[in-house]
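Chapter review. Work through the record for BLOC1S2 before attempting the end-of-chapter questions.
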Amino acid sequence: MADSTVSEINTEKDLTVLTRDAFVKVAEYLNGELDDSIEDYTMLEKMNRVTSSKYTDIKALVSSVNSSMQDLNAKYDSLQPYIDQIDDIELAVNALEQSAFKLDAYSKQLEARFKELERH
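Structure tokens for BLOC1S2:
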């Protein structure tokens, strides 16, 4: 019976040691997992800050482009009457050019008739 009591005590001690060892290893594992999660969240936080900064830069750029576009539109609107005048002048020049071609053709016909009349 003494041997069985000693054996039970040794088994209990072994079980206690093994249990403590298991708890320590599980705690170490969980701490490692938590450290990994903390690193992941830290990296995500940095990425979010960088992304936020980039979006702020893009917002400023878009605002600048928008302002420039408004200025260009205002300048275009102020030049529109002159552009319309240029278009009207172009139409008039084209009509004048057509008239000049017709006049040239008519003068060539007259010259040909005159030369024909001179021969007779």
